[in-house]
Write a structure and sequence with these properties.
Layout: E1 14-19, E2 24-31, E3 36-44, H1 52-62, E4 66-71, H2 83-97, E5 101-105, H3 109-120, H4 125-149
Parallel strand pairs: 1-4, 4-5
Antiparallel strand pairs: 1-2, 2-3
Helix pairs in contact: 3-4
Amino acid sequence: MPPTKKEPINPNDTFLGFDFGHKKIGVAIAHIETAIANPLTTVPAVNQKPNWQQLQLLIEKWQPQGLVVGQSVQQDGSDNLVTPRIIKFCRQLHGRFNLPVYQVDETLTTFEAKQMLYNDLNVSAKKLWKVQDQLAAQRILLTWINAQQRPHEP
């Protein structure tokens, strides 16, 4: 199960962030010391399921100390249709890789990534499809890092 409380984070730690989708999963990487997250890759799903082989290769290559997954909810905070699949993905990540899995609200991250690419940078729809999930994963990681750096709430 994902951790429910803030655990001590080492400044040298590396984390992978995920923007989960049934067709593809955006992946980003962050180093706590620099508080910078970078888009990494997009992992296509296999029959609407995570491609565990590709995810394992990424985890072996980058050796993260933890994983951060965007939690999709409605604007009012209630679960949406994807929420149960994301929770299952988090449990599977933890079970397969024995790493702490943290969840953070991903509301509007994909929308923001699309808006930045399409409106601000005039990226074509084809290129947008390839990188939007990576950028959403980057925003998910940055949101989580910022939450870790705030004083602990009681």
